[in-house]
Each structure stands twice: as C-alpha cells, then as structure tokens.
Write a structure and sequence with these properties.
The structure is a single chain. The protein has 511 residues and is α+β, with helices and mostly antiparallel strands. It has 3 domains: 119 residues, no CATH class; 115 residues, no CATH class; 135 residues, no CATH class. It is 46% helix and 12% strand. α5 packs across α8, α9 packs antiparallel against α13 and α14 packs antiparallel against α15.
C-alpha cells in the first residue's frame, strides 16, 4: 500500500522516492548533518539535476552549512525547531513551500524544486530552484512587424508572465495558476484584468480548463481545441499570438489570455471575426495609414476565397461578362490545354500548396529558395508544355499573395481550405454556386458564438455605440470606449476632453 503522507523515518522516505522515480539518473540525493556539536540532526537534500539550477542548489547547501556552524544552540534541538528554523530563514531568495503529502512532494520535485527532508519529522520543505537553459528573447517569427516591440514569448511561462507584468503594472492584473494533464501536469496561467474582463467569461473559461481530462498538454493548441465552442468550424474562434504587446492590448480590452508552459504561443479569447484582421502594428502607425492596411486585408480575404472560383464561373458559365478582347485572349491561351478549367485550377492550387508545404518543412536555409524557384520553374514549364494556361498561373499567384496578407496564420489556413469548396460550387453552378457559398458562409459565421459572445460582433449584432474600432482604426484621442460585448466596463480609457480643449486653445492663441 502506497503511503499518502511523509513518514518520520528519513530512510523510508528516501527509498520510497527512489522507488517511485525508478532510480532516475538525474535524481540527486545529498545527506547533511546539522548542529553536530549538540544535536546531530540528519537531513536530505533532493532535487532533479535536469530541472534544478545547480548554482541555486549549491547556495542553499552553503547557507545550511553556515546556519549549522554559526547558530549557537546550547540545548539539544528538536526536529520541529530545526524545521521551523529552516522554513523561516531566507535561503538565497528562493521561494519556500512546506508540505506533508507525497503527492505534493513529487509534483514539486518534478517542477524543479529542491526538497529538504528532516529525519524524525513528517514534513518537507520545497525551495523553488527551477532554472533549466531556455531560449533567449527573440523577435517573433510568425508575426513580424516593422515598427513595434521586437521581443516575443519564449517556452518558459515565467518569462512570458514577466513580459506581461512589465507592460501592465497594476494590481488588478490577475494571474491564476492551473495544472492540466494527468501525466505532463503542464503549468497553465489564466490572465485577465479584474474589473475589465467580464466575470462570467472568466468563470466559464476557468471551468472549461478544469474539466479537461487528458494525459498531456504539449502546446497551447491542445487547450484551444478542448475548450472551443465550435470544434468543427474551419474558422478560428480563439486567437493565438507570440507577441506580449498583443496580449497586453487584449487584456486592456477585456479579453482573457491563456499562457501554457513549453510554448511561445498564448491564447486570447473570446476572439471575434474582425480581430483576426487587426495587427498590433496598426496602433503603431498613423490611423489613416492603419485603416488603409486594415481594409486591404479585408479585400485580400475575399480575393483569397473567390478569385479561383470567379475565374471558373466566368470562363465556364458566363463568358459574356468578359470584354471581347479579353475573352479572345483567354480562348487563345486555352487552345491546346487538355484539361477543363476546374481541373486546371485544382491542379495548380494543389501544386502550389505542395510547394508551400515543402518550403516550410525544408531546412530554413534552402526552404524559401526551393519554394520560390519551384513555383517559377513549374509554372513556366507548365505553360510552355500546354498543360495549363498563363491566366491560370496568374490566378493562382494572386490567390497565394493575398493569402499572405492575412495577419493571423490560423485564419489564413482556413481560407486556404475554404477556397476549394468555392471552386467546387463554381464548377457545378457557376455564379449561383459562389453566391450560395457566400450566403452559407455568412449564416455560419453569424451563428458562431465564443463563450457566449457572437463571433461577428460588433457587426452582427450591430453594436456601433459600444465599440468604435472595427473597419476603421480610430485615433487614440477619440477611442474612448472598450468593447462592450467583451468588457464588463465600457468606461473611458482616458480623459481626452482636456487634451482636446487644450488643443483648441492653442490653435486660438496662434491665430
């Protein structure tokens, strides 16, 4: 029968720990005697060398030796006195936690803590000495910007939390620690700003995470898939980012962030449709320029989905809509092409997807060269061989370029898939099929909800009075309200009235 609590016999505790850990090579157990001149108290220091910072462990051992040597104790010390002495004596600034159960002991040991067990006492002390080598702060690879912070999240959750703390220096920032995964016991941090985030949204997210029953969490995508409302939709309903400034801005709007240990990608929820077309860089440029960028991304959204389908519908069903010179030019290009337009489009789109996937999986040094050269060579060779027309190569190129305009990779991947559905509808029914597809997609988007928030907010339902920043990037001196469909407080972000009054007074004085 396995014991639940720590035993007073130190040798029994050490043997049980070795047995449960399977005599791991990185399990280190060091024995030490304190107060030899009067008491001769035996203790054991236990840690995993692969997780604990050896410098911190050595400092703790050095502090223990100093305490044993310099502390003047005339009477024989009890184990309880020694335990309390060590518990309330600072040890190199390390966080100390006391416990009495083996379950908690193993969890601390596997989290990088250094344990101290005292012979004759049924409690343990755990010092936070976690410190493995990790990746240094680097620029995000998936969301690069021209102007803005260049640092991104790393795989260490403590570092990621500190990056948020550095930006939001307020006591209302709440960080709740959770453990998910029966085997991996992955550390998960739930972050929100108290008073801004809606309590019902925070409680629902917390409940869903606590209900996760899985053996391991290796990346934030695991949690995203397990807590999302609509698991079968191809559109992303939870945003992910590796930019601390993006997470900080989302928290200020009332969103909830989820950080997972072992991955640089944080989750932001609830996420609405328009947020996937907003880049953090929009707020680092002039609001007019940022508005143009945002509208350009929305145009790219429709071009990515519809360009191949519209080409198929025009050439197969409604060529009369084309100008006569263009129609004759397309007919001349397709002379000798053996495949129908729809098969030609599918062939080129699949070929480009294969090239893009190969460029991603190839080594970084040669991947971009292979994808670019492969696309150019194959496209030119296919046209010269008469397999496809030059117009089809242009259509596929436009689709690929516009897809790269989408700032969120999850939304871009969804569009890559949905355009094949529009191509099939266009091949079957022409423009009617494209129209039916757009109507079905619109109904599907309007039917989606994320933690009770409509996916198309604030467009459907229309909430223009509660949120000002959608298609147009509002300047900061006019952006007063938080999104009411997410935030519990739509109070003024800042008192801009005084700034506007002073600006008007300065203009009057100049005149």
């Amino acid at each position: 029968m396995q014991p639940d609590n720590i035993d007073e016999n130190l040798d029994f505790n050490i043997d049980y720990i070795r047995q449960q850990m399977g005599s791991c090579t990185d399990l280190s157990v060091q024995h030490l005697k304190l107060f030899r001149t009067v008491s001769d108290i035996s203790i054991s220091i236990i840690f995993l060398s692969s997780l604990a910072d050896k410098t911190k462990v050595e400092n703790i051992i050095e502090e223990l030796n100093k305490i044993s040597k310099n502390m003047k104790i005339r009477l024989k010390s009890s184990t309880e006195f020694v335990f309390q002495l060590l518990q309330y004596t600072p040890m190199c600034g390390c966080e100390v936690i006391a416990g009495s159960e083996f379950k908690e002991l193993f969890q601390k040991l596997l989290s990088g803590y250094t344990l101290i067990l005292i012979d004759g006492y049924s409690n343990y002390l755990a010092y936070k000495t976690y410190g493995p080598e990790g990746r240094s702060l680097e620029e995000p690879t998936s969301q690069s910007v021209i102007r803005g912070p260049k640092e991104g999240f790393t795989e260490k959750i403590e570092v990621n939390i500190s990056l948020i703390r550095r930006r939001i220096k307020d006591t209302s920032l709440r960080i709740e620690g959770l453990n998910v995964g029966s085997v991996t016991k992955t550390n998960v941090a739930l972050m929100y700003i108290n008073g801004i985030a809606r309590d019902e949204i925070v409680n629902e997210i917390r409940t869903r995470i606590n209900k996760i029953n899985i053996d391991g969490i290796l990346e934030s995508r695991y949690i995203e898939e397990l807590i999302k409302d609509n698991p079968y939709t191809i559109f992303p309903t939870i945003s992910d980012t590796e930019r601390p400034d993006a997470v900080s801005a989302a928290l200020l709007d009332g969103h909830v962030a989820i950080l997972v240990d072992g991955t640089p990608f944080a989750l932001i929820l609830p996420a609405t449709f328009m947020e996937f077309f907003i880049s953090s860089e929009d707020y680092y440029h002039h609001f007019i320029i940022a508005t143009i960028f945002r509208i350009t991304r929305l145009i790219a959204f429709f071009l990515t989905m519809l360009v191949p389908a519209l080409y198929i519908a025009l050439t197969s069903y409604s060529p009369e809509f084309l100008p006569t010179p263009l129609l004759l030019n397309l007919a001349a290009q397709r002379e000798g092409v053996p495949l129908p337009v729809v098969f030609e489009a599918f062939l080129m789109e699949l070929t480009f997807e294969i090239l893009r996937e190969a460029g991603v999986r190839m080594p970084r040094a040669i991947g971009p060269a292979i994808s670019i050269v492969g696309a150019l060579v194959l496209g030119q060779a296919a046209v010269q061989a008469g397999i496809v027309s030059a117009a089809m190569v242009i259509v596929v190129s436009i689709t690929a370029i516009t897809n790269f305009c989408i700032p969120n990779i999850a939304m871009a991947n969804g569009l890559r898939t949905i355009r094949f559905a529009f191509m099939i509808l266009a091949a079957i029914m022409g423009f009617y099929g494209v129209l039916i597809g757009l109507m079905g997609m619109t109904l599907h988007l309007c039917n989606l909800k994320i933690i009770g928030v409509p996916y198309m907010s604030p467009i459907a339902p229309k909430l223009t009075k509660k949120y000002e920043d959608t298609f147009v990037r509002i300047p900061f001196w006019k952006r007063k309200l938080r999104p009411g469909f997410i935030s519990s407080s739509t109070d003024l972000r800042a008192d801009m009235e005084g700034i506007n009054v002073n600006r008007g007074n300065r203009r009057t004085e100049m005149k």
